[in-house]
Amino acid sequence: MSLSVKKEVILAPMAGYTHSAFRRLCRRLGADRTYSELMNATGIIYKGEEKELAYFTDEERPIHLQIYGRNPEEIAEAARRMAEKYRPEAIDINFGCSVKKVLKAKAAGYLLQFPEEMGRIVAATVEALKPLNTPVTAKIRLGFYEDTLEKIAEELLKAGVSAIALHPRTAKQGFSGKANWERVKDLKRIAGDVPVIGSGDIRSWKEIDQKFEETGCDGVMVGRGALANPWIFKEYKEKRDIKTTLKERIDFVLEELQLMWEFFEKERACKVIKAQIVYLFKGIRGKSKLNDRVMRSKSCEELIRNLESLFSICPVPTSLLRK
Ligand SMILES: Cc1cc2nc3c(=O)[nH]c(=O)nc-3n(C[C@H](O)[C@H](O)[C@H](O)COP(=O)(O)O)c2cc1C
């Protein structure tokens, strides 16, 4: 099934960060497409665990709901249930995550060692989603220990994948070294008409332009760069740097919190957003003092009071915000 991705700048999936509220705010700032955080296939089938993670609004469309698991039957069944219930634009299969817990379960990034099994998973999911007209996409790394991109791509394409997002590092590398965008270019050549999305180390709108130019890829994903600077999407659209003030960043957090309360219990939303705040304050001088205040907050009310008071106790002028 074909999926059209034409020079799109996409918010990367990031567990613990890219929930519905953050996705909505990034869409408003110009992100063209979003992905959910990864959701466990077994959890979906047996425990209905997906509720908060799968929650999205029309504003986040086009959206890919991302699933990870261990075997073709389970992933295909979880995908069918999610597609039927939520009608996303695509179901994405995660073959990249390599945190200990996931590797121990022999799922996601672990499967990079077995390209044929990856192919069977995609083929089974494509088959299960045919009646629902829902495309299946995959998010991969270069390989597990070694770069085996060609073999992985061959299996996924044969299985009928509708788009591939590549984070061009091996699982073994984790986040060390540099993302090898040359391999995004190679994948684009191999994939023919199937859209290719590159993901890794994008920190400025100029780099987005550069990656489109250099690799010919169909989409560029922004992950950690968007946590620190969600305005990157607007910067790319408007082709200019945008300097944000501390007040604008605090307002962003407060708006995100409001949106989070739609689908997160109040206190939990505050816990989740603290990690996001650390990213957003990263470039600010005196950030440790600011972070301290935020982290010390013991309740939602206290967090909001502290955020609101930050501006008055520390009116950091724009010039102090590093870009
Ligand atoms: C905190 C965090 C959580 C992530 N969670 C996911 C995830 O749920 N699914 C996924 O496919 N990739 C996940 N990733 C990988 C990102 O989508 C992305 O490919 C990677 O971070 C490289 O891009 P960046 O340098 O723009 O962050 C995660 C990355 C980070 C930093």
User: What is the CATH T-level topology of the largest domain?
Assistant: TIM Barrel
Beta fraction of the residues? 5-15%
How many beta-strand runs?
Answer: 8
CATH architecture call of the largest domain? Alpha-Beta Barrel
Helix content: 40-55%
Give a quick account of the main beta sheet: strands, pairing sense, barrel closure: 8 strands, parallel, barrel
Helical region count? 15
Please identify the top-level CATH class of the largest domain. Alpha Beta
**Poorly predicted ranges:** 315-323
Average pLDDT across residues? 93
CATH homologous superfamily identity of the largest domain: Aldolase class I
What shape does the CA trace take?
globular
SSE run: EHEHHEHEHHEHEHEHEHHHHHH
Radius of gyration: 20 Å
